[in-house]
Amino acid sequence: MNPFTDAVLPLLLIALLGLALRRIGFFTPERRQALEVTVYYVLVPALILSRLARAEFGPDLLGPLALSILLPVFAVPLVLSGLRAVLPGPPLWLRNSARARSSPSPSSSSTPHRRRRAPICWRASSAATTS
């Protein structure tokens, strides 16, 4: 067999097996959830670790390897702090959660609901942008 068939045939057979098992109703929601958790938390990390254990790292790969590890570690915080300086107000995920907390729930309609104030740094930055 050629290398293409050796690589594609097992993947095709696994996909067809999964399709057949789904058609006959083998995957209940509980089984599917258990399989997802097993794959995500056990099998994928095991595959990554086994591949890293067998990988050959030479001195010529040290620079690209260090760059691929260190660039995201330093670039992501820099980009996020730059966006924080440019965009006014709290992050969107905090705005949505504050709105959800400030709307009264049906079960607590008899009790008054106090709205939480934003931290001082957000109030100051929003006041500076409106004036």
Low-confidence stretches: none
Major sheet size, sense and barrel closure: none
Shape: flat
Instruction: Tell me which oligomeric state these chains represent.
Output: single chain
What is the number of strand segments? 0
Helicity level:
over 70%
Structural class call reads: mainly alpha
Overall average pLDDT: 79
Order of helices and strands: HHHHH
Task: Please count the helical segments.
Answer: 5
- Taken as a percent bin, the fraction of beta residues is under 5%
Intertermini distance: 73 Å
* Computed Rg: 26 Å
Description:
- The protein is mainly α and 131 residues long.
- It is 72% helix and 0% strand.
- The chain is built from five helices and no strands.
- It has helices spanning 3-23, 29-54, 62-86, 92-102, 120-130.
- The radius of gyration is 26 Å and the shape is flat.
- The model has no long low-confidence stretch (mean pLDDT 79).
Give the helices and strands, then pairings.
Elements: H1 3-23, H2 29-54, H3 62-86, H4 92-102, H5 120-130
Summarize the structure.
This protein has 131 residues and is mostly helical. It has helices at 3-23, 29-54, 62-86, 92-102, 120-130.
Characteristic key phrases:
mainly alpha, flat, 5 helices, single chain, 131 residues
